Amino acid sequence: MEDKITNSLKKIPKVEQGQKVVLGIDGLSRSGKTTLVRNIEQHIQEKNIFTCVLHIDDYIVERERRYNTGNEEWYEYYNLQWDVEWLKENLFKKLKESNELQLLTYDNSSDSQKLQTVRIPNTCLIIIEGVFLQREEWRNHFDFMIFLDCVRDERFNRESGETQTNIEKFEKRYWKAENHYLETVSPIEQSDLVIQN
């Protein structure tokens, strides 16, 4: 992984004084995105460059808006898990023009969204991590995109034993949505860098 991070950093646009660079870490569930982000963040901070890390899963909507909506489960996960247009207007479009974002952040314990202020320095590497980042509404707001490619069996084995027992949910919800993303968006081909993990 160390070599992968070093090689990745060489390809990411340099953060100049007064500049914000937006880096996307895309990949399907359990492909290793969060681990890669932590490692990149550590390397960048050693160079005295500010980083701001945003996890797209922090901005999902309440359960009633993404479950039992009458749509197929894969559709709910891909299209309703996030308010795609709201995030486009309030997160992605404002990343470089504002130093302060007001974002609706999901709280799992109360199943509610709460407004949170996110401050971004003038000179900063903004790292956004999550699934489906290259959907049409968001893709043009990134300066550089890394896709972590990992086969489904390997990713599934990284789930907890309890989670693995509910394979029907994966088949109906997650895997169908992932297939839709791969087939309609072609994230591997669209990425600036693909890392096999």
UniProtKB/TrEMBL annotation:
The keyword Kinase applies. GO terms for molecular function: uridine kinase activity. Keywords: Kinase, Transferase. Residues 22-195 form the Phosphoribulokinase/uridine kinase domain. It is an enzyme of class 2 (transferase). Its EC number is 2.7.1.48. InterPro entries: P-loop_NTPase, PRK/URK. Gene3D superfamilies: P-loop containing nucleotide triphosphate hydrolases (3.40.50.300). PANTHER family: URIDINE KINASE. This is Uridine kinase.
